[in-house]
Amino acid sequence: xxxxxxxxxxxxxxxxxxxxxxxxxxxxxxxxxxxxxxxxxxxxxxxxxxxxxxxxxxxxxxxxxxxxxxxxxxxxxxxxxxxxxxxxxxxxxxxxxxxxxxxxxxxxxxxxxxxxxxxxxxxxxxxxxxxxxxx
Length: 135
Hints:
The protein is α+β, with helices and mostly antiparallel strands. The chain contains 3 helices and 4 strands; from the N terminus they run αβββαβα. The protein has a 4-stranded mixed β-sheet, sandwiched between helices. Helix 2 (about 65-90) runs parallel beside helix 3 (about 110-130). The longest helix is centred in the middle third of the chain and has 28 residues, at about 65-90. About 20% of the residues are buried.
């Protein structure tokens, strides 16, 4: 039986300002029903196949409590489902950085966020395959 690691460590979070700025300037953009995803190949060597940052804009939600609730739900869904993405990236020996921006103006329940994360991973894998010419 294969043991899966369902944690989200500090090294898996995108914190480097230069990388974040470069992503916003020249990253690849992908849209799903709830998210705008900006991604790019990593220029730095990382201990994990992906680094991720989550964002909920202040424009849609004035109160930090609500923004933090949505970010917690997105982080939890990502944490549970990330192995699909990690398996693909490990197969191709790729490393990427991702910014996930919530783009809706209502508070979704956890189940719909989880489904949207699944869809996002499928679209992201297809986009990476097309960009890297991986079969």
